[in-house]
Amino acid sequence: MKIPFCLPHIGDEEIQEVVSAIKSNWLSKGPKTLEFEGEFAKFVGVSHAVGLNSCTAGLHLAQLAIGIGPGDEVITSPYTFVATANTILHCGATPVFVDIDPLTLNLSPELIEQAITPRTKAIIPVHFAGYPCEMDRIVDIARHYHLSIIEDAAHAVYTRYRERNIGSIGDITCFSFYATKNLTTGEGGMVTTSDEELAARIRMLSLHGMSKNAWNRYAEKGTWYYEVEHAGYKYNMTDVQAAFGLLQLQKLEAMQQRRAQIAALYTSILSECEGVVLPYDSAEHRHAWHLYSIRIDPERLAISREAFITKLSAVGVGTSVHFIPIPHHPHYKRLGYNLHEYPQTRKVYEGTISLPLYPGLTDDQVAYVAAAVCDIASRHRK
Ligand SMILES: *Cc1c(COP(=O)(O)O)cnc(C)c1O
């Protein structure tokens, strides 16, 4: 059996929608983007959504919109994709990493408070794998110290924190529609906020800093005149992406049901498997199951993560590692960061393996992957 780590879940409906978007002759940001923004805002339960070409663009513009710049510090997790930290650097600010909770793999609220200085401007919680951060605690801390919250919800398009959807809690939330994400438009992203001014600023900065409705300047009812208010960026979504996204949004509930089933099946088989630590979940929240990351327990198994991955690959199972911690990357090492200052992140990273998880997997494939994991583990028990 050959089971790739990741496969997008795209039907003929999406293909037809994309074709009709192309045939409509409106290729860039236009009516479909506005429709997708409206539907997405409704889905999240928030007043504003702005379509962008990536989550990275969203993280960058979110920070610019709240005024983060040189001299400022932004607190985030070291256990994330590098976009979270790179965009802090793009603003000229300094990333301040706080270690993760080894259970949830999300940044530890206790450590956030210790990391706050007079220069701290914002916190960027990352909802790892789609399991939400401790938002009540983080909101309390942010209120107390007058900090903004920008959520990296690249994994959390379906996540609920208690009764609230992710996207309706922080000042600004950034979603990713990258090829591997739970909802994809190939490349794409969305930011949500309940603050009209922040939404307007992000919209303006996403299109060269041009004045409102400049996207419509080539339409029949549009006008050629616009004014540039800021040296903005080219980060807008296109109608081809939005047409794709609208269809994916319609299917999201069904895709998420399947993800949850697969995660439950993995858990039921792997919980019998000694030496393998399973991902955390709790009935209090709704997990989006973007990733199913297991951890090899070095106390109980005498096999390295690398050897484990090689053995899985030999039996046809594709895997990945989420994430290479930010302080491990050469650029960040040169800036003076050191992974040894984040012992929990380091420990989790050294043993972690992400298993295939996407709606197209069959129960047989999931059982095959889980059996392969158990088999390797049982051969390497200490
Ligand atoms: C995928 C990802 C991003 C970046 O998303 P893009 O849409 O590719 O820019 C940011 N943060 C995390 C945690 C991610 O996994």
TrEMBL record:
What GO molecular function annotations does the UniProt record carry, in alphabetical order? pyridoxal phosphate binding; transaminase activity
Q: Which Gene3D superfamilies match?
A: Aspartate Aminotransferase, domain 1, Type I PLP-dependent aspartate aminotransferase-like (Major domain)
Indicate the residues that form the catalytic site: K181 (proton acceptor)
List keywords of the entry alphabetically. Aminotransferase, Pyridoxal phosphate, Transferase
Keyword Transferase carried by entry: yes
Q: Which domain of life is it from?
A: Bacteria
Single biological process term from Gene Ontology: polysaccharide biosynthetic process
Pfam families the UniProt entry points to: DegT_DnrJ_EryC1 (PF01041)
N6-(pyridoxal phosphate)lysine is found on K181
Instruction: Establish whether keyword Transmembrane helix is in the entry.
Output: no
Q: Which InterPro entries match?
A: DegT/StrS_aminotransferase, PyrdxlP-dep_Trfase, PyrdxlP-dep_Trfase_major, PyrdxlP-dep_Trfase_small
PANTHER family in alphabetical order: DTDP-4-AMINO-4,6-DIDEOXYGALACTOSE TRANSAMINASE, TRANSAMINASE
Protein family according to the UniProt entry = Belongs to the DegT/DnrJ/EryC1 family.
- Indicate what this protein is called per its UniProt record: DegT/DnrJ/EryC1/StrS aminotransferase family protein
Q: Which organism is it from?
A: Brevibacillus fluminis
